[in-house]
Design a protein that fits this description.
heterodimer, A: 372 residues, alpha+beta, Rossmann fold, OB fold (Dihydrolipoamide Acetyltransferase, E2P), 2 domains, six-stranded mixed sheet, five-stranded antiparallel sheet, 25% helix, B: 304 residues, mainly alpha, MetI-like fold, 15 helices, 71% helix, 0% strand, transmembrane (chain B), cell membrane (chain B), MetI-like_sf (chain B), transmembrane helix (chain B), membrane (chain B)
Amino acid sequence: MSKVLFQHIYKQYAGEQRVAVKDFHLEIEDGEFLVLVGPSGCGKSTLLRMLAGLEDISEGNIIIGDRIVNYISSKDRNIAMVFQNYALYPHMTVYENIAFSLRLSKLPKAEIHERVNRAAKILDIESQLHKLPKQMSGGQRQRVALGRAIVREPEVFLLDEPLSNLDAKLRIQMREEIGKLYRRLRTTTVYVTHDQVEAMTMGTRIVAMKDGVIQQVAKPEEIYSRPANLFVAGFIGSPQMNFIEGKVRVRDGYSLFETRKHTLRISEDKSKMLRDNGSIDKPIILGIRSENLLYRNDDLAKPEQQMNVFEAVIEIKELLGADTYLYTNNKEQRIVVRVDPKTRFEEGERIVVGVDMNHALFFDKNSEALIC
Amino acid sequence: MEPNLVHIPKPKTGLRIRLLRIRWKKIDLFQVLAMIGLTLLALFMLLPIVFIINHAFKPISELFLYPPRFWSNQPTLFNFQQLILKSQTTVIPFSRYLFNSVLTTLVTVAGVIFVSSLAAYAFAKQRFIGRELFFSFTIIALMFAPETVAIPRYLVIANLGIMDTYLVHVLPLLAAPVGVFLMKQFMDQIPNELIEAAKIDGAKEWVVFFRIALPICMPAVATIGILAFQGSWAQTETSVLFTSTESMKTLPYYTMTLTNGLANNVVGQGVAAAAGLIMFAPNLVVFLLFQRRVLNTMAHSGIK
């Protein structure tokens, strides 16, 4: 178990103009489960590969424990990696796959046997040890890949989109297993994914990346409720956060958020922050998640909230069992609203949507950064 | 897993005959014709093998029959007897030629596999300056018939100072561009992650090569083995060109002399037939042993 420190890492592939990773600076605490998340091509896998020693570092230092590992080869970094396609040795049995690294480090046979069996027991693949990888299902193969990693008792685990080759059900199951494994071993883990659900459920901390640059580093709750900018706000959370363009104006002592057709009243504390920030009369983007939009029928709320409503037409209805999402149009743009599945809706129906302005987020349209 | 290409509806009655009939219905006229055509072709290709085997056991009276026959009416071991007797009377015994051949062929096969797969691994999985250039050299080398480079090859061997040694039967054959090409096609298909995983697991480059890359490429290794075996076992050039001492020459050379020049007599034909079978048999055995793997290579090499 070790700390990992990235010191101003840059990566530029030979013969490419684009910089794959730009000034990545981060300290990963001992025993932390850090998730790197971002769309494809954001540099997250490159970072992991640099940490693994599979890719050269163009600039900066990577420190594992108290060693600078820039010029230390993969095998001497004391790390273990799980690949997206499992990368099991096809000609070796499961036992041999797991034992491979131990054999190379010339451990005594008895110890190898004991460690392989212990790992197999943790992962519940004891009965599969004699099989070849091709005789196993995707989920089982992933377990073997995990077994191969944990048997080495490394300082850092690296997982590169380990669940993307599995079907939806298995993915959830393996997500849980990896979580369990982590809680049991408490080894520093770096997990790369493009799936924000995996990031939210597994990480103790999330690093959101875009175009090789860190966008935000935060705990899952925080990254969800207070995304640092429009990109993170849009990337984390499903369905995507609703973005409404408009301006903040002050009228009769109230701060109002105005679009062409709608007016929403901003809560006291937020309006103060907006005023302090000098955002009045400037283009602003309001972000609101679908669960903070409330369907209202007859009880058109208390008078002071009556302002924060708009009418919308249901275009698409998406039943997900526990929730129903309504893709509505409020004459300006599409707004996704989460509603109780027990209430019946028809496509084409007009509804009144209330906005919970306490949970609204305000972004500067030009810098895309969060204001409050 | 193989997908079900042909959907076979389950018969309600569960009668096997019905199922069979449905299956047969799926085979159309073209397939029947192709099947017959291929069977005939296969039988035709089998003829020389049948001939070689039978020929070795024919008595002298049948050896010179006209028109020649494929089968032998009175099979005899006389020819083999003569082969052994004849070689007892010459300076160099038959067994010496056989030993030379076996030794040099084994070394050549092992050498070709080793050199080709190492080169292929480098071409497929290593990054170095001139990788494409060197690989295109290898491809260009595929184009030359051995005869066209006989003279430069002779000069190389002569200048190396290895004339009249066992090395001349091995060294010229080690440059096997076909082997390198086939191996590279195969190695290309090994996912990089596999090699990276092995490196993280603590393997050095040699270990990755011997424990991961080579075992995965076993089908290609078998194919190259066969090619190298055939190239080495039956060739006479190295004996003719690079050796002058009789005891350094190989079995195919000896077989050739049996039917050539002075030795070309009536008994020589029978001896040659027996020697021919001895020359041929290992080819057949080696091929039968590895044919499954070879087919696998052909399917994987991308040439098909």
